[in-house]
Design brief:
Blueprint: E1 2-4, E2 10-13, E3 16-17, H1 23-34, E4 40-41, H2 42-50, H3 58-82, H4 94-97, E5 98-101, E6 104-107, H5 115-131, H6 135-146, H7 161-187, H8 195-204, H9 209-221, H10 225-243, H11 249-259, H12 272-275, H13 283-289
Length: 291
């Protein structure tokens, strides 16, 4: 089974889509797909579908949605069986793919692809390359990870509490990989190449300090010192107005360096695990406020 959730939902068995068009069965499949090969508790599925206000028939209705999904999976399995010789190992059934287990359901990928798992693998390679100082390798791996995204996670799925939480988690992972890919490109001297991208990102994530620091560095290295200082001023205004905070000491040091027109404004070397965080104690609040 091949699973894509980093954009529109697409779940395929033998190359045939098993994604239903009806909103609630689609929600069920999306939650099972993002947790492929792991049991999703019935309580989580009910919470996803009815957000704390389940009808009395919730479990029965959920079972109906599971049956509908199995019908689609069964049709895809039959399509695959028609392409294979009659002799061979026992063919999987729909119940082998969407498994009922004590307390919940499991979608068995059976070695198929998953864009989330591939993203995690490539991003992990990129982070390790950053730690090792291999910025070219980090840029390649992180760019390949980001290329797996075709839009917001679960872009065409009606999301309840569980999927919304998963979408936020995935978005944070995407932003982290993007931040580090830009960091790698800056260390490779590609400051002009990332300017347009950072212009958009700092407008979208208005309180994300690391993106603003990267924007300031790219502008300064491109000979646009005044714009780099303006970027700091805009960030300081946003932080003060929206959060009642001042920029972090790192940002203030960077601004001072640019004011002095210092030739080197590269962030101090640090392990990628430190650079992957927004450089302020309340990083999560700042990143969330930037959306």
């Amino acid at each position: 089974m091949d699973i894509d959730v980093l954009g529109a939902l697409d779940v395929r068995e033998n190359g045939v889509s098993v994604a239903p068009t009806a909103p609630k069965p689609r929600q069920v499949l999306a939650l099972l797909a993002v947790h492929a090969d792991r049991v999703v508790p019935v309580a989580s599925l009910i919470e996803e579908l009815w957000s704390g206000r389940p009808p009395r028939s919730a479990r029965t209705t959920l079972q109906t949605y599971v049956l509908q999904l199995r019908e689609l999976i069964g049709a895809a399995l039959e399509h695959g069986a028609a392409q294979q010789p009659a002799a061979g190992p026992r063919r999987r059934t729909a119940k082998d793919v969407l498994v009922t287990l004590p307390g919940g359901y499991l979608l068995a990928a059976a070695g198929g692809t998953s864009d989330v798992r591939e993203f995690d693998r490539l991003a992990g390679l990129g982070y390790r390359a950053m730690d090792a100082g291999d910025f070219a390798g980090a840029s390649r791996s992180l760019a390949a990870a980001l290329d797996l995204w075709s839009g917001s996670a679960f872009a065409d799925v009606q999301t309840g509490a569980q999927l919304a939480m998963e979408a936020r988690r995935l978005d944070e992972s995407r932003l982290c990989a993007l931040d580090q890919r830009i960091e790698a490109d800056l260390r490779l001297g590609r400051h002009r190449e990332v300017l347009a991208e950072l212009t958009v990102l700092t407008s979208r994530y208005r309180s994300h300090e690391n993106l603003h620091a990267q924007f300031m560095i790219a502008l300064h290295r491109s000979g646009r010192r005044g714009e780099a200082l303006n970027a700091y001023t805009h960030l300081r205004t946003t932080l003060g107005r929206d959060l009642g905070l001042e920029p972090s000491p790192r940002l203030r040091r960077l601004q001072h360096s640019i004011l002095l027109d210092a030739p080197e404004t590269t962030p101090a070397p640090a392990a990628a695990r430190a650079a992957r965080a927004v450089h302020h104690p309340d990083a999560a609040a700042r990143a969330a406020a930037g959306r």
